[in-house]
Amino acid sequence: MNIEELEQIAKAVRLENAKYDHEVNVCMDLACLSQHADRLKDALTTAIAASGKNVLIRKTGCMGPCSSGPLVRVDPEETLYRHVDASHAEAIVASLGGEPVPGLQCDLNEHFELQTRVVLENAGYIDPEKIDDYIARDGYQALLMVLTDMTPNGVIHRVAESGLRGRGGGGYPTGLKWGTVAKASGNLKYVVCNGDEGDPGAFMDRSVMEGDPHRVIEGMAIAAYAVGASKGFIYVRAEYPTAVARLTAALRDARRHGLLGNNICNTPFNFDVEIRLGAGAFVCGEETALIASIEGRRGTPKPRPPYPAVSGLWGKPTLINNVETYANIAPILRKESKWFSSMGSERSKGTKVFALTGKITHTGLVEVPMGIKLREIIEVIGGGVPGGHTFKAVQTGGPSGGCIPAEMLDLGVSYDALVKVGSIMGSGGMIVMDDTSCMVNVARFFVEFCMTESCGKCIPCRAGTAQMFTLLTRICNGTGTMDDLDLLVELCGTIKETSLCGLGQTAPNPVLSTLKYFKNEYIEHIVHKRCPAGVCNMEATVPAVPMEVSA
Amino acid sequence: MPAFTPPPLPSDDKRWKIVNGTMRKNGFARYALIETLHTVQSSFGYLDDDSIRFVARSLRVPLSQAYGVVTFYHYFSLKPPGKHTLTICAGTACYIKGSDKLVAAAVKRLGIPQGQTTKDGNISLMTARCVGACSRAPVALFDSEVEGEMTGGQMLEQLERWAVE
């Protein structure tokens, strides 16, 4: 495969698509699929055949506003239909070439206006199981350009220049990490993609892997060329069977096209990727635990240094980046790094994908430039809190993050700003809570999560989270005392300071941030034995037994 | 040192061949432990003592280590699943939207705690740590069918349908 051949494929697909008068795109992401988008697609296919119209039907990845699903978009008119079911199929097909079906249109201009699509630029436009669809949208161009025209150092320089930071949550500068792995000695190096999206309430990586799998593979191949690796692994949660299937198919197709394997693009560069399944352990999102899991062992973290960049998988230098980080690579190289760094805030460049969920009108996947105000995401893109309730807090960063109260909604979203207010960017879960959510109960939920997910290697985390859970359960039961609260704060400090890995170090964050902004709720529970949100059962009958996770 | 010969298959059940295939594909390397356990679970529905022993011997992993891996990861189950499985998502978005109430209702209806199977082997009750359908919280999986915006009523109706099958 060379650039000319790639362009020929792209041209052929574009010509083929141009033969059709219309394109009907059906979102088949999990949320739409759970509302029988598959039956809808069958009905549309039948209706198109019956109508004799010249129409292309395509299944796509996530279009974004999941709460309006199942979604159908008709091109070139770009008419988006919401809550479509099989009974609407004939009306939609009949309307092609005329006026849109009345009453079915999705009017979400405000929702889309503030968004900038980089990572999700193909989601909703390509069939994730067709490599040619990806190629027709400039896919693999960056890889071939890099292999023929750029030196590994040039690639690293370009990535560093763009200002891209790790999208897994930590925000470590990607170019710097690549540089470290490139400089590490040894012939054998590995590239790993962290697709173990364990943060409950986040599904950005799932949507990217399912909706645009080749983009992840292309990003990994470019990274491998830059750092000098020939072997890659994608570590995916077993809970995402569709992502596994789509990635498997994508890898097969990439190999067939000569975009993976030996002597890619007639250069000396060899690279191939294997999939490794997770097995339900949150701690495996931590890079050293992830490495242990790929090696077939229990996912327990190791002290760093040595960092995986120097000694990782089987002791070899290993580059580990998150799915979304890799998804940013191809556009950065295809365009200018200045294009990328012109988006975002001073120290956080580009865009970020968030999974907007909870008590909010438009749930779904949104991609916004860094620096956008939380208020814009929640009130404009998300459409605010429904049902006449009032906004109370937004939780970012999952079990490692914190709750941000209403008075801080004018905060611009960036790695540093979120840390400053006691939360973190995290991988991109954004859960909105209203006045019916009890913040003490939410803190207890996260601590319970960290307690059951603690790998048990180091005591502060293993025993500390259990103690925190007991204290929080007492407070939720109405049997807590003010001394318990002091003890809780002290314990938070100890766990933060002394835990080995990120899980333990950040486990106290949900407690500390709710204590910082919603201390009155804790006091209400303790002093007045009252849960202001009416969530906690104050009859002291709830035993301090965790909700055991069985699957 | 004589070359390593993997142990014979535990029985002529064809599923062992699939399991063996996974190990062979990985050259019987130790790192294939988790991959192989996934294959066992997807073929047999769960991991029993015999299968863990067989995999451990085949990959030359100490049995204690294999058992440690099985019990470390939530995804692996040591008990056979019921004919049907109700899985309620206990992720954050689902929790905020009341999945704990769904769990309580299911526990009450089935008379078993979560993670267990009814005595007649008909229904297993499970919870999951987020299936990634957060935008349609709360989410329940009936067998492997994902259903969003689940209400207690809808869930109990499905349980009734399973009960009278």
Low-confidence parts of chain A lasting 5 or more residues at pLDDT below 50? none
**Strand arrangement, major sheet of chain B:** 2-1-3-4
Q: Over the alpha carbons, how many angstroms does the gyration radius of chain A reach?
A: 24 Å
How many domains in all of chain A?
4
The class by helix and strand makeup of chain B works out as alpha+beta
> What is the overall silhouette of chain B?
elongated
What CATH calls the topology of the largest domain in chain B is Glutaredoxin
Task: Give the spatial strand order of the biggest sheet of chain A.
Answer: 10-9-13-11-12
Mean pLDDT of chain A: 94
Largest beta-sheet details of chain A: 5 strands, mixed
Q: What is the name of the CATH architecture of the largest domain in chain B?
A: 3-Layer(aba) Sandwich
| CATH level 4 superfamily of the largest domain in chain A | NADH-ubiquinone oxidoreductase 51kDa subunit
SSE arrangement:
The complex is a heterodimer of chains A (551) and B (165).
Chain A: H1 3-18, E1 22-27, H2 30-33, H3 37-51, E2 55-60, E3 72-75, E4 79-81, H4 89-95, H5 109-113, H6 131-136, H7 141-149, H8 152-162, H9 174-183, E5 190-195, H10 204-211, H11 213-227, E6 231-236, H12 241-256, E7 272-277, H13 287-294, E8 318-322, H14 323-334, H15 337-341, E9 351-358, E10 364-369, H16 374-381, E11 391-396, E12 402-405, H17 415-420, E13 429-434, H18 439-453, H19 459-477, H20 482-498, H21 502-506, H22 509-517, H23 519-527
Chain B: H1 15-25, H2 33-44, H3 49-59, H4 63-72, E1 84-89, H5 92-96, H6 99-110, E2 123-128, E3 140-142, E4 145-147, H7 152-164
Helix pairs in contact in B: 1-2, 2-3, 3-4
